[in-house]
Amino acid sequence: MSAGGRRYPAGSTARLRADVLAVLGVLKVATPEQITRITRPDLFAAGRAEPTKAHRNAALDLARHRETVSEGRTVEGKKLWGLTPLGLESAGRVLDRPLEEMGTVARGVGRHGAAHAMAVNDTVAAFLQPASGRGLGSLAGWSTEVPLPAVGTWTRPGRGGVRADAVLTAPEDNVPLLFVEVDCGHMSAERIAAKLPAYLRFLNRTVKDTDGRPRPMWRTRWPATTGTTLGEGLYPPESKYPPLLLVFTGRSPGGLHRLTKEVCRLTAGQWAPYRVQANGATAIREEDAAYRDYRDALPVLATTLDRLVEHGPRGAVFWRFGHDRWEPLHQALADPDGAQAYRDRRRREEERRQEQQRRAEAEREARLPKCTQCGARFSETRIAYLAGEDGRDDPHPELCHTCAYTVEHDARMAELEAQKAARQAAEEAELEDEDEEYRRSQRLHRRLWRHLRI
Fold first, then answer.
1. Is residue 387 predicted with pLDDT exceeding 90?
2. Which of 146, 217, 278, 297 has the most CB atoms around its CB within 10 Å?
3. Cβ(193)–Cβ(244) below 8 Å
């Protein structure tokens, strides 16, 4: 047996072991089937008799090196695998994450079937959907069991915060940050609703940045999120908070619908925007509202696991609290009645008004008479002048003001030139007469002089 065979007697490859470490590093616990569906869905498509055997053997080889450990079985009897502290470090290297962001190992979750953990895993797999190509984000963009401390630190959170079931960062798909809570039918609407104030306590918490200025704590871990231009707008468009997705499963369709409506009602104080009048004052009545202010509203989305699996995360599977239909993710996160939409409507209305004004001006101008000389339309002043008493004797009613002035000016200048020429001609004629008289007198003088000499 080779050295590699002695080290990994189950025959796993480095790639398969990296698959196991990456999935368990994100999900904390998983079945070999979940690992294979997330990392190598082609093994199922190939029609193999045991498509999960390769990853099962990889988990066994990692267990030999004390990096994985059996965590019991699911409710359906499927074997669960988890990481040891040593395996958590190895998974951090595979995922290229600092150890403090890897969380902790999940010990004992399989004692009662790990129903919630499996629902979280199925939610992550429904988002990824590597086999269908309809997925969103990547495995490396997911984290599970993420503490969001209202007090304390990331690694030692105090009371008052919340632990997110999952967190997605997928800027490549215009999803910079998404918190995910999964309910598999065990929590009441009141317990689910109680999580939203805890989220807001964390999201409103500030810490001093490196420059000494206060900054929201969540931005220190996820800096490139809200306020970043993505696509046509901001994500989320106007809220200062990243969105929260509630995924429901484990109930009948009617039960899921009733639960969603009840959670929506109980959490209106967290997700509902303020009504604002056009002058910026708070609107008491709905009919007085020009737009809604979402700046302090937590964007809350809801979906069911079955809908997410069937249509994928790019389908119309999200219901935004406050909206009235199922929508795709980015459409659900839009604020069609928000301040930016109101400003856009006002801008479009002003553009339409100006366009109508330009069109009316063009139509009015088209009805004005044209100057027979330059072709320009008459001005309102010219039309009013010609219609008045002073314009009745205008010698050029067919001309615009400029051309009429030019014609009159040219005629006056021609008249002045003619008068000047006439004066010059008269002066020249007078000089000519004087010269002729002088010449006559000279001739007479010479004849008289000759006569006297004789």
1. no
2. 297
3. no
Q: Domains, the chain, ranges and CATH?
A: 10-106 (1.10.10.10), 114-336 (no CATH), 346-387 (no CATH)
The set of long-range contacts for 225-233, using a CB threshold of 8 Å and a minimum separation of 24, is 225/176, 225/177, 226/176, 226/177, 228/176, 230/171, 230/174, 230/176, 231/174, 231/330, 233/334, 233/340
Please give the mean pLDDT across all residues of the chain: 85
Amino acid (one-letter) located at 285:
R
Could you tell me where the DSSP H helices lie in 225-328? Answer: 253-266, 268-271, 305-311
The answer to whether the CB of 142 falls within 8 A of the CB of 120 is no
Q: Judge whether residue 132 has pLDDT over 70.
A: yes
Distance CA 326, CA 364 (A): 49
Phi then psi dihedrals of residue 265, to 5 deg: -65, -45
Are the CB atoms for 74 and 113 separated by under 8 Å? yes
pLDDT score, position 123? 96
Element (H, E) at 376: none
What angle separates helix 14-27 from helix 85-95, to the nearest 10 degrees?
Answer: 100
Q: Which residue has the higher pLDDT, 327 or 448?
A: 327
